[in-house]
Backbone:
């Protein structure tokens, strides 16, 4: 599916859009100002003990009799970490989030950024080591294709804590999930932000999440734990469920806004290209 030539052509179209609106990067800007050599001159700074004397602008010294250092903009390499929820609750959304991940990874690899892939369930599992370059695209897509639903109940906070311990260098983390985590998501987002990573969330839900279509006496089984319970569902329970889900999703939106985390919420009926186009046109993977 993900390695089909027609699908890859769709990914290439999204990369061309990324080049047009963001210069190819998934972030609107990754440039930082450094002393010394670089890409583009940015500003001057006063010379301080320990600075490289080769960066002194002697023409400025001749005019002002003051030692000044040239500052340059440098574009930093970035690693994009794709954290994909592969717990049982994602079964009906698994193909959809892998398409979204394929598009983001394709753009990043084509832009010469590094890409790493992890699956989230009751544990954090490495799917693909950090890799860079267009030559790794096919390997990346095959890794996504091979991903299966696994584990039991999602333990997002534990997975995020494990990720924090493994990756300290600044990067871009994209979490793709329905965010219906039994243990919540607030601590997990805090862990992911710990080393000043940029974090972006893509929340994908479907009708099974957003609407209760059951009525009468039924036996419910939790898709993650397998626990069963007999209940009677009336219009009152349907309304309560849908209200609770709206509150949960709104709480996610507020939490992301408060923590400076980017968020794009979508439904599986929305073509994945539209979601990626929306992200790119609003400035990329930024809060």
Residues:
């Amino acid at each position: 599916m993900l390695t089909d030539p027609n699908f890859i052509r769709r990914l290439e179209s999204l990369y061309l859009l990324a080049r047009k609106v963001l210069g190819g990067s998934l972030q609107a800007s990754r440039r930082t100002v450094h002393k010394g050599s670089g890409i583009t001159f940015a500003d001057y700074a006063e010379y301080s003990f320990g600075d490289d004397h080769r960066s002194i602008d002697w023409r400025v010294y001749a005019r002002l009799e003051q030692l000044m250092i040239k500052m340059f903009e440098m574009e930093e390499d970035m690693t994009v970490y794709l954290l994909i929820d592969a717990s049982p609750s994602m079964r009906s959304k698994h193909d959809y989030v892998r398409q979204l991940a394929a598009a983001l990874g394709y753009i990043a690899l084509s832009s010469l950024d590094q890409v790493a892939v992890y699956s989230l369930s009751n544990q954090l599992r490495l799917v693909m080591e950090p890799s860079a370059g267009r030559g790794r695209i096919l390997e990346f897509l095959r890794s996504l294709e091979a991903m299966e639903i696994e584990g039991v109940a999602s333990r997002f906070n534990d997975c995020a804590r494990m990720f924090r311990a493994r990756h300290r260098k600044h990067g871009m983390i994209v979490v793709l999930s329905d965010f219906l985590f039994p243990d919540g998501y607030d601590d997990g987002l805090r862990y992911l932000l710990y080393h000043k990573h940029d974090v972006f969330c893509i929340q994908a839900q479907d009708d099974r999440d957003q609407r209760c279509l059951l009525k009468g006496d039924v036996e419910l089984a939790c898709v993650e734990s397998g626990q069963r319970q007999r209940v009677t569902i009336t219009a009152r329970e349907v309304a309560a469920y849908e209200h609770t889900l709206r509150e949960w999703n709104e709480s996610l939106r507020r939490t992301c806004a408060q923590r400076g985390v980017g968020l794009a919420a979508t439904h599986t009926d929305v073509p994945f290209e539209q979601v990626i186009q929306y992200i790119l046109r609003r400035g990329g993977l930024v809060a």
Notes: Residues 28-39 have pLDDT under 50 and may be disordered. The chain has two domains: 5-27+78-281, 31-75. Residues 15 and 103 are 8 Å apart (CA to CA). The chain has nine helices and eleven strands.
